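Why should sequence recovery work at all? Because a backbone constrains its sequence more than one might expect. Tight turns favour small or flexible residues, buried strands favour hydrophobic ones, and helices have their own preferences. The token representation captures these environments compactly. In the example below, the structure is given first.
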């Protein structure tokens, strides 16, 4: 057999169900001169049988089985590198895929000029809803060749080893292998590759399909989705220490602030969004694990963060667990704190007291949010559901409290509207918020979800109600937070199963789910999906009207 141009390693452990899909995506590559190494981390399911069956189908496939399970991705990748025959190598996880032109696209970049690796765009696909997005799109938006990571340190954010094709000579020259015995090995491997490479090329074409299961059961969740485990936190911080040591030893200390910013903005931020769902004991342990490392980071890395993220960081460091939960529920959504405090110099701070230390005052100073002065349409309020009561049919009664920490709303009752739009059709329910004390308003609203108008083909999906304030001809629309836990409501309405439930992740909104049933699900929806011609659309409408 002639020497292949590229070796693609597919690592697998107990994933017999998806291995064929991954390997077939490599077999279908438009550049066919490659070898495929299935590196099995000592699976105990049907993976060996599936791997050998695939090997029998295609002479380009080699099957490598580790003698014992390593518990991570590093060992199976390293063992495959030991036997790889091609001058260029790539890595694929068994639950993902390569687009058909991935190998050809990255190999072409290597053949254009002498580079150490080429990297491309990663397409993220949510397995729960099929939505597609590009991972770190701003970093791969244009084709470019960089003479080292110093040209664009933002690339530390793109730490995936699977989005790249490496020159084997580059890896061997530097003895670059995946660190074994730890998780988050990609972060260290990629940081080392970025720093050691003399040049590398970025291409905007998609070269990897990453299937993301954000709400998988804990035993099946990916490492990055096991953030509820304190061992996960320890591993992530351990890898950061290894990266920091490498930067210092390799003469790349000047990149430390950029790398620290990446840790705060990406790694810590992932845990911050989960804080509302963690108990006091977990939060105390989390603080004990992360604070010593946070103390080593460059001050400039903090200064680059949006103010709400700096607030959460400081509340965690100060051990203010209840406040950290409150602040983290607003991240990324423009949700105001419940209360702010102003000092004698006119500086405004998150919470009900002026922070005690100079560092805390700097981090909790929310004056730059301009809560008092920003236009009403973009003003920040905080809307919380304090009570949910089931009503008749598909209706619920909500008690709502609105916090106005900057006292933007005039004294007296406020006009408000609850909004929800299944299938793009809005249901608006007006109600009144009455003042309770300065900066706090309360009201009650009856939401009858049976009154929501659904499209003729029905609606399958999730919606979260919003709250709109009305003032002097202007409106302000904001997120509506719900209790993190409350009994799920399930009923039937208009050929749908309707479920009202806690969001269960993220900020924790009220979540309403519609699932079509009966004729709508079996006949009307499939007909409308096939609307390739106007006559099909008319037929679908006729079916829908006849069945009303």
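From this structural description, the recovered sequence reads:
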């Amino acid at each position: 057999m002639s020497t292949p141009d590229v070796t693609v390693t597919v690592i697998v452990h107990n994933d017999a169900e998806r291995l064929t899909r991954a390997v077939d995506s490599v077999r279908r590559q438009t550049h066919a001169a490659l070898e495929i190494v299935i590196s099995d981390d000592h699976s105990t399911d049907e993976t060996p049988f599936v791997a050998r069956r695939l090997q029998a189908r295609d002479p380009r496939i080699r099957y490598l089985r580790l003698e014992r399970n390593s518990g991570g991705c590093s060992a199976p990748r390293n063992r495959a590198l030991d036997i790889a025959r091609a001058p260029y190598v790539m890595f694929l996880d068994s639950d993902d895929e390569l687009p058909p032109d991935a190998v050809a696209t990255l190999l072409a970049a290597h053949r254009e000029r002498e580079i150490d690796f080429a990297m491309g765009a990663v397409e993220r696909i949510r397995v729960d809803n099929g939505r597609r997005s590009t991972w770190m799109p701003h970093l791969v938006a244009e084709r470019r060749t960089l003479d080292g990571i110093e040209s664009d340190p933002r690339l530390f954010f793109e730490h995936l080893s699977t989005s790249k094709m490496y020159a084997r000579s580059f890896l061997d020259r530097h003895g670059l292998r995946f660190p074994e015995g730890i998780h988050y090995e990609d972060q260290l491997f990629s940081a080392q590759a970025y720093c050691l490479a003399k040049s590398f090329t970025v291409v905007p074409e998609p070269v990897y399909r990453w299937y993301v299961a954000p709400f998988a059961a804990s035993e099946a969740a990916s490492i990055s989705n096991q953030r509820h485990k304190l061992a996960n936190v320890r591993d992530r911080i351990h890898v950061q220490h290894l990266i920091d040591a490498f930067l210092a030893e390799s003469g790349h200390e000047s990149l430390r602030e950029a790398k620290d910013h990446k840790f705060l903005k990406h790694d810590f931020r992932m845990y911050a969004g989960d804080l509302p769902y963690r108990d006091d004991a977990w939060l105390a342990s989390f603080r004990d694990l992360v604070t010593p490392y946070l103390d080593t980071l460059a001050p400039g890395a903090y200064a680059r963060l949006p103010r709400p993220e700096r607030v959460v960081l400081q509340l965690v460091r100060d051990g203010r667990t209840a406040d950290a939960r409150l602040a983290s529920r607003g991240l990324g959504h423009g949700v105001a704190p419940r209360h702010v405090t102003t000092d004698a110099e006119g500086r405004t701070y998150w919470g009900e007291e002026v922070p005690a230390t100079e560092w805390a005052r700097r981090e909790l100073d929310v004056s730059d949010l301009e809560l008092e002065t920003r236009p009403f349409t973009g003003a920040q309020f905080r809307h919380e559901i304090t009570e949910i009561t089931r009503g008749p049919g598909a209706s619920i009664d909500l008690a709502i409290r609105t916090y106005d920490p900057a006292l933007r709303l005039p004294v007296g009752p406020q006009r408000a509207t609850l909004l929800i739009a299944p299938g793009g059709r809005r249901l608006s329910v007006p109600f009144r918020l009455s003042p309770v004390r300065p900066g706090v308003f309360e009201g009650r609203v009856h939401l009858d979800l049976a009154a929501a108008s659904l499209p003729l083909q029905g609606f399958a999906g999730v919606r979260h109600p919003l709250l709109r304030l009305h003032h002097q001809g202007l409106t302000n629309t904001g997120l509506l937070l719900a209790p993190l836990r409350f009994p799920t409501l399930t009923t039937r309405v208009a050929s749908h199963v309707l479920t009202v439930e806690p969001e269960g992740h993220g900020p924790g909104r009220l979540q309403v789910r519609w699932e079509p049933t009966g004729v709508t699900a079996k006949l009307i929806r499939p007909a409308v999906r096939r609307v390739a011609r106007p006559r099909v659309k008319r037929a679908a409408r006729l079916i829908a009207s006849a069945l009303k």
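A few observations help interpret the result. The first helix runs from residue 16 to 27.
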